[in-house]
Here is the input.
Amino acid sequence: MTKHLVIAVLAALMLPATALADPVSEGDRLSAADICQTQRGAMGVAQFKLAYGTNHDRSNAYGKCVSRQTRAMHAARHAAVQQCQAERRDPNFAQTHGGKTFEQFYGGGKKNALQNCIAQKTQTAQQQQTERGINAAKACKAQRTAMGAADFGLLYGTNANRRNAFGKCVSRLESESETHEQNAAQQCRAEQADPTFPAAHGGKTFGEFYGRNANDSDAFGNCVSSKAKAAAAERQQAVINAAKMCKAERAANPTAFRNKYGTNANKSNAFGRCVAQHAKD
Here is the structure.
């Protein structure tokens, strides 16, 4: 566990778990800096600037990234406190965690189990937040390649010259990724609690089926990750297919296309509305 994560967890244990009224911690900011540095390395400087930069030369990208991710980690830390306190109170915890009590599962006995739980969930949240941005940038790049820069700008751009399209795409796909993860978590909780799970999964328990580490403590996270990735891939293909359909429809009759889908003064939102409609179908 990194030093700044320990600081953040200890600070969280001293705060009420019911609100986000306290200011962000130094741990939140340092976690955010880690996220941004990793994302910048994975995306490359040029794409990182497109994803976060808002001024003319995109020189404010790193600061904008840290600001956004600090808020995300602040919320994640509080969510971890709430989740871990709820798990510790849950009388059925052992039934869904391989027969282990809260203290046994997270280790450290009564003194440190809660701290370990919060640290684990906060660290997982940091990893997820990092991956969301990286995966969103990859998906946006693929969409831009598939539909062309001009139509990509029409789909995501919101300013006059559509120069903010890539950043808006990344932001939207990050939000969608979080939704995919939330939906996946609901599905995985249902599987985890299902007594008939082994019968439908080759005799393996939930932990055995999804677990990859020594004590299968990563099973739930692996379940969520696999389902969320599948949902994101399906959504990505739906958007690309919708863009192809809309390009063909527009080419066949540009005027009819603009009148059918456009709702603003100059019908400039026609392509975006067409893609949104067909991606849902």
Remarks:
- Residues 148-281 form one domain.
- The mean pLDDT is 90.
